[in-house]
Design brief:
alpha+beta; five-stranded mixed beta sheet; two-stranded antiparallel sheet; single chain
């Protein structure tokens, strides 16, 4: 059941109906950075200094971009209580949804483990349960799972045996998939995207990508993306459709929590990007110095011209024609 159809008034995008998004992008990102990196006093002060109109505009955009759980958490930790009722209700919804996802995901991955099918969870499916402090803080709609090229056919067979229904027939073994994943599959309200490669990693073979995956627990068939590859995945995924579908709140939070989790070195990020012939993640993230603290930007060391170009692309992505945008 589509949650938006079952409970349209409870869908995150219905938060604060009638409120228009008036806040400028720079103001929004600056406040977002203060909420994440600022002290409790800084957060409470920044929030109290906003007008009711600006608060509504900020919350509307944060909810639309799936960032409302983190906003609620940061405001709550800073001692803010007034006016958070809608965010609290959304947080309960995301918590409930995360528990359902976790239960079903554990059931499915046990099947993969039993068959010794090598796999890696990607994007929100991985970040929510492994990087974020709580899975409810990282909303996601479907499971992105990368399968080892030698195990992909067995994985597809297991998916169908387990009752998942693909929206289109899986390509035959001698047919190449037309996208970076096989057709989306549904089962009991859950959605799964079986990946054979990573999105927007043009020119890379699956074998090249798997060199940068690390085995998980001993005896497990689950693999983990090393932090540098995880960040590269996020910035490459943002490039889909000429950056038209990039959700800046989600990208910045994913990068910030990856940094907070530790183990991410910018020199390694450059190395992985070069070896896989992909753009350096720091150049895209460096387009948002109004979010990251100066010391993070300094360590990131983005190319100034590229970062400026990325910012212009993002700010104009909805008005540029495809040719000009490309």
């Amino acid at each position: 059941v589509d949650f938006r159809e079952a409970h349209p008034q409870r869908h995150p995008c219905a938060c604060l109906p009638g409120v228009e998004i008036q806040m400028e992008l720079k103001e929004y990102i600056q406040l977002f950075g203060t909420l994440f990196y600022g002290s409790s006093e800084a957060v409470a002060g920044a929030w109290s200094g906003l007008s009711e109109e600006d608060r509504g505009s900020f919350l509307k955009r944060a909810s639309r971009e799936g960032a409302s759980p983190v906003v609620y958490r940061q405001l709550f930790l800073a001692g803010v209580r007034e006016g958070l009722e809608e965010l609290q209700r959304l947080n309960l919804h995301y918590s409930s949804k995360a528990m359902r996802h976790q239960c079903e995901l554990m059931r499915f991955t046990k099947l993969l483990e039993a068959e010794k099918i090598r796999y890696a969870l990607l994007k929100g499916t991985d970040l929510a349960f492994r990087v974020y402090p709580s899975p409810a803080l990282r909303p996601f709609s479907d499971w992105d799972i990368l399968f080892h090229p030698e195990d992909i056919r067995r994985a597809l067979q297991l998916i169908e045996r387990d009752g998942w229904i693909p929206i289109a027939p899986f390509p035959k073994e001698n047919e190449d998939p037309t996208h970076f994943h096989y057709p989306l599959c549904h089962r009991k309200g859950m959605a799964l995207e079986p990946h054979w490669t990573l999105p927007m990693f043009d020119g890379c073979t699956p074998e090249q990508i798997w060199k940068f995956l690390q085995p998980g627990k001993e005896g497990s068939s689950r693999y983990l993306l090393e932090p540098a590859l995880n960040l590269l995945l996020l910035t490459r995924h943002a490039a889909e459709d000429f950056y038209n579908t990039m959700t800046v709140s989600k990208l910045l939070l994913d990068a910030a929590f990856l940094l907070q989790a530790g183990g991410l070195e910018w020199s390694r990020c450059r190395q992985v990007a070069e070896e896989l012939h992909q753009p350096y993640s720091g150049d895209l993230l460096g387009a948002f110095p109004d979010f990251f603290p100066p010391e993070v930007i300094q360590a990131m060391a983005p190319d100034a011209d590229r970062a400026k170009a990325y910012r212009e692309i993002y700010e104009n992505r909805r008005v540029l024609a495809d040719k000009t945008h490309e």
